[in-house]
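Internal QA ticket QA-208
Title: Verify multi-chain structure generation after dependency bump
Assignee: T.L.

Test input:
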Amino acid sequence: MIPARPRDTREHIIKTCRQLFTARGFVSTPISAVIEATGVKKGNLYYYFPSKEALGLAVLEDARDDFFALLEASCVGPDPVERIINSCTVLLQQMEKDNFVGGCLFGNAALEMTEGDTRFAEVLHSVFGHWLARVEECLHEAESLAGCPFSLPVPRLAKLVVAAVEGGIMMSRLNRSRDDFQDCILALQTILRIEEPDRQI
Amino acid sequence: MIPARPRDTREHIIKTCRQLFTARGFVSTPISAVIEATGVKKGNLYYYFPSKEALGLAVLEDARDDFFALLEASCVGPDPVERIINSCTVLLQQMEKDNFVGGCLFGNAALEMTEGDTRFAEVLHSVFGHWLARVEECLHEAESLAGCPFSLPVPRLAKLVVAAVEGGIMMSRLNRSRDDFQDCILALQTILRIEEPDRQI
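Actual output:
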């Protein structure tokens, strides 16, 4: 059923297409599938989104806003390393709820959307840039608290965290199982533990 | 120019489509693009590959064989951790040669091919299964040589290695730069260093 108000219709199209693009990919989803899934007539669809690219961009921006909100809500707690692990665990729970169909919309988009349209790339850069900055912030705080640095530079360690999450999601999607992504999170949990110098034997 | 011999034609189609599917994705590449890129007539194409799925499977198997050969050739040397890092570095060089267009065919395929066709999933399982087993083998040897275990179980650490490589490739592709993938390899190099117990202070 399509809500009557324009704002709701736009929202309804975006949310439906987000599921659709995550599961099928943006490039390989034809407009006919969008029309079928949303129940919105073609003319009405083009009223809200003049092109498929405009629709793809709106979906990506919607996912970005939700991801930033998820980071805000999950990257919490007194221990900075646990904040990082919390966010990863919330991502895992979200993927699991969707039975790992589609994996990470941003990772998928990075692999298919960036060739032609620079506006897609801009959104993706803001997603990964913000995420990396947040992880780096936590890692710097962990170094301050422990009174010693990690064995590798913080920006490099932050990239490893994000890459391991993205790769873990891909493997979990392939195997339709939480195990791979969870193993990556557990591995990060061990690696990110800094020992205070006087605790080392 | 199309080679005359049937074996060469088949090979020519596979190699051309491998580049095509890596750059554009399998699902979103129409048969018309395959015909244009290969220069092979439609009837001739269907003589070799009765369906797009058969072509996709042949391309994936070809990439798998090359990847296994790459692992054999690059996962060498006296130090087991350096063997892992060598393989990653050879992958980085290969991606760089292609200017990070397309990223990892297996990772992409895992994200788009596995929904419908279980034969694609089988090839991907064999790729990631073989790769993980090879990394685990090296990690076990590293533990034996150091006389002490890693701080986390070998299968978990192996998954982190593979996930970090796949995620690193995705980020490098997004940024069209070797830096992200290289940072992930350097991070792994630090993390995989085991200190012998008597060397710890």
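Spot checks passed. Chain A touches chain B through 47 residues (CB under 8 Å).
Status: verified.
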